[in-house]
Amino acid sequence: MDVGMVCVKIVGREAGRKCVVVSTIDDNFVLVDSPEVRRRRCNVRHLKPMGERVDLTKGASSGNVEKALKKAGVKLGE
């Protein structure tokens, strides 16, 4: 999983919500964030890549993630 990849969480209380990979922790875990999903560490097996990307730098702030999602036209809440 690369920084900026848009994914859907498939496990947990936030299942079905879109998020963006903000940073790679190791081979099994990434840091995700979005207006729908609070910033947290997540197992890559709990994410389904959507095939979309947004332009982000590693460790981007929550505000930058939200702006990048709007700029890329990614619809949330679907």
Q: Topology, please?
A:
Layout (H helix, E strand, L loop, with lengths): L4 E5 L8 E7 L4 E5 L6 E4 L3 E7 L8 H11 L6
Antiparallel strand pairs: 1-2, 1-5, 2-3, 3-4
Protein described:
With 78 residues, the chain is mainly beta. The chain is built from one helix and five strands, in the order E-E-E-E-E-H. A five-stranded antiparallel beta sheet has the order 4-3-2-1-5, covered by helices on one side. Strand 2 (18-24) and strand 3 (29-33) form a beta hairpin. The protein starts with a strand and ends in a 6-residue tail after the last helix.
Radius of gyration from CA coordinates: 11 Å
What is the structural class?
mainly beta
Helical amount among residues, as a percent range?
A: 10-25%
Biggest sheet record: 5 strands, antiparallel
| Total beta-strand segments | 5
Strand content: 35-45%
pLDDT < 50 runs, ≥5 residues? none
- Form type: globular
Q: What's the total helix number?
A: 1
Task: Indicate the mean pLDDT.
Answer: 93
- For the record, give the distance between the C-alpha atoms at the N and C termini, rounded to a whole number: 22 Å
- Following the backbone from N to C, one meets helices and strands in this order, namely EEEEEH
Strand order of the largest sheet: 4-3-2-1-5
